Amino acid sequence: MCLRFSAAMPLSTQSQADDEQYVLVASLDNARNLSNILKAITFKDHAIFNATPNGLKVTVEDSKCLQANAFIQAEIFQEFTIKEDLVGFQVNLTVLLDCLNIFGGSSVPGVSTALRMCYGGYGFPLTLFLEEGGVVTVCKINTQEPDEPIDFEFCSTNVTNKVILQSESLKEPFSELDMTSEVLQITMSPSQPYFRLSTFGNSGNAHYDYPKDSDMMELFQCTKTQTNRYKMSLLKPSTKALALSCKVSVRTDSRGFLSLQYLVRNDDGQICFVEYYCCPDEEVE
Amino acid sequence: MATMSCVLEGNRVKVAPYCVAAFGKAIHALSRIGEELWLDPMVKGLALRSVNSAHSAYTCFLFSPMFFQHYSLGSGSEQGSATIKCKLLMKSVLPLFRGLNSIERNVERSQISISTPSDRVTIQFFCRHGITKTHNLHFQESEALQAEFASHLCPNVLKAPARLLGDMVMHFPVFQEEITLSMMPLSVSFRNYCEAGNDHMKMMYTEMSLHPDEFDYFQVGVDSDITFCLKELRGFLSFAESHSLPVSVHFGATGNPVRFYIKDMVLEATVVLATLMDSEKRGPSQPIGPPHPSSPRCADAAALPAVSYEADGSKPQDIPAVTELITSSQGSPIINPPALMQLLSPVDDPDRLSVSDEACPSATTTPASTMICSLLFRALSSEQDDDGCAARLPVLACHSDAEEDMEEDYRRSPSL
To answer: How far apart are CA B227 and CA B229, in angstroms?
Structure first.
């Protein structure tokens, strides 16, 4: 990565000729609309970027058991130009976030960092042009060949239980989960306790019960009683996505695989999605 | 089967401060003292107690049945059924009550129950939106922990709004471990305590004096300087302030323990702190002051029975009698450890001195605790007591089994 400071030169006056070399150009007036959502999936250093004409998908995986995806649709960007059907690369996510926040990330109203993200294709670095208050910074981040994201084969037809909760009701329990518990157990059932999060720690166990008629429960579709355990260390990072979101859907399929989908509103009120997939630790009952 | 069950209202239903958040605030205050929490459900209420590892600080919060929306003991209506007494790790309980603001906003009702077959304490929070949080915590069965402190034998008594004391201690930095409270006929002063050997040039000395008129009640039986750990008192004062309750302070001569006490219709709380024996270590700005009578007041009071402090509250009318006792005992030889020990624990050998060497080392004790000679009490809880060295410390007050007669198997033994 190298940094070059240019004289005040708004990003928009860059010559069109420069753009010919890029297979992907994405611009945002407010870089936070990208950096905030990426923070929700930063639990590993490396991320796989996959861009299509529909938008950008960023994937982070952990030990082949957990996958997090952030979706930023093309409409969110002020400019989104892609020359191929699929453009993929892998970068160090921590470095990318550092660059996006290079101006300090202070949230003074009205002042934001503008971003122009450009990628020349296989073998080229990811180039970021960042501007705030007339100062432009250029960052070039090395890219690697992207790994193939795991396909968890989670499809809607196989979903046994689904609930949609307002994130507000989950934020506190998630932040106070007993971390001495190795697992987070999720019980979903058409009968009591309906939706239950459980931990088993050194001091004892804890249960958080959400009744199906709670006003925080926007949707309750449970067909079969299922109890599954997931490694706490894998799910705990999802707390960041929960903190940003206003709603979350929790689904389990017949194998006990877990899908968490978070609806996130960015600074401008636009909707983006983050999802987590997790393999069960073991099946109980 | 021994059981206990009580229900607390949340802030939204019942007027604060009689609510879950108040209970949580008590837990916070208890957590400043020790690492274990003793729960003792009794007919007269639920007692929560804690003691620090050096046994130099003890606190008890007693919530009467009226504090709760519902309070019941026992598996049936038998009055004589054994109630379970248990001990929990503070680090298991405190996180449940850590977010007091959140509890005030969200918790509509809370239920605490103990049941022996499952050896679990169940704490349930019934929250807004129908959400229920259930915590099942392991407990250890334990003998009740209790300190005896004969308030009515204390020559010095102060009573002041918690706010006054809070305003005083606010001036001391958070890292200030000990402060000295000096009582003289015309003033009460607080100053920070500095150990000898500290570089006096680098220390900041703070002293505040109050006129007796500032107190709701002021009685000086003997001039005295008592030095005690402030850190252990802060949580209690914060609780007292949040309930706008006056605090009673009972103490005697240097080296004797001090008791802070609050009470209202539904709860009472006490902190008993040991005080430093050696009062000669002061900041350079301090006057030497009048010579303190060094004999404990109660040398001639050996005939008085030990009285549980809970029954006593503060009875100023008893104090004058003791004051007379004081003048007659002026000039008596020093008896060390304090003679209150003789009142309550005749089995102990009063010649066992050199407490400072025997004090239990612990990462959580304050530096001065190792010099504190008064051991307040002995918690004779079966084999869980890990302080083997506590056996050799003189005992100021004994484990009390006054409340329940059924602990026949309880053994009062001088060594643990």
So the answer is: 7
